[in-house]
């Protein structure tokens, strides 16, 4: 919880020096917030969180070495009372789900106003969940069971998702057919359905979709 003076100690973890220092400067203008420290990557965030014991960690999602999701997992394993707020340029639903599963209390986009980020810090401190508007409703639907994984993947069946993942990993149709013990003609039919459902036309777009939905890693 916040200190006795009513201030919140915040650790900022982001590999972009200019963004990190700029955000730190802006947050320091808020009388409720005290900057506990800064970290340039996930490993440093874990170490500094252990020594500085911040109330809230603003955690970048994509950092070299150790990403924000894994860093969140490690911090919360030893400091369950710490609040982690994911700070990212990504607005794809899948990243939000991974961050929340790791224990993060919320998610704000980097281009949000500093006042909005400060408000999000105070909100997670009081036990609320915070999510960026464009994806919040879909994520909440997923978490509450209001929508199914099939809806999350735009109507793709589990077999189509399986084939899409193989396509995105560079596997040719022949390999997919052999692995799944189905004919190449059946594979081609599934791929036609995938293209039709997603309104895409080639494997490059399949890769982009798979990355956006966190089905594969780049």
What does this 3D model show about the protein?
There is one protein chain. With 218 residues, the protein is α/β, with parallel strands linked by helices. The protein has 2 domains: 8-144, Response regulator (Rossmann fold), CATH 3.40.50; 150-212, Arc Repressor Mutant, subunit A (Orthogonal Bundle), CATH 1.10.10.10. It has helices at residues 17-28, 42-52, 68-78, 93-101, 114-125, 133-144, 149-152, 158-168, 173-180, 184-198, 203-212; strands spanning 8-13, 33-39, 56-60, 83-88, 106-109. It has a 5-stranded parallel β-sheet with strand order 2-1-3-4-5, sandwiched between helices. Helix 3 (68-78) links the parallel strand 3 and strand 4 (83-88). Helix 4 (93-101) crosses helix 6 and helix 8 (158-168) crosses helix 11. The longest helix is centred in the C-terminal third of the chain and has 15 residues, at 184-198. The chain is elongated. The protein starts with 7 loop residues before the first strand and ends in a 6-residue tail after the last helix. The model has no long low-confidence stretch (mean pLDDT 84).
N/C terminus separation = 38 Å
Strand order of the main beta sheet, please?
A: 2-1-3-4-5
- The CATH class of the largest domain is Alpha Beta
CATH topology of the largest domain: Rossmann fold
State the share of residues found in helices, binned by percent.
40-55%
* CATH architecture title of the largest domain: 3-Layer(aba) Sandwich
Q: Could you give the order of the helices and strands?
A: EHEHEHEHEHHHHHHH
Largest sheet: 5 strands, parallel
Number of strands: 5
Regions with pLDDT < 50 over 5+ consecutive residues? Answer: none
Round the Cα radius of gyration to an integer and report it.
20 Å
In CATH, what is the homologous superfamily of the largest domain? Response regulator
Strand content: 5-15%
Overall 3D shape? elongated
Helical segment count: 11
Number of domains: 2
Look at the helices and sheets and give the structural class: alpha/beta
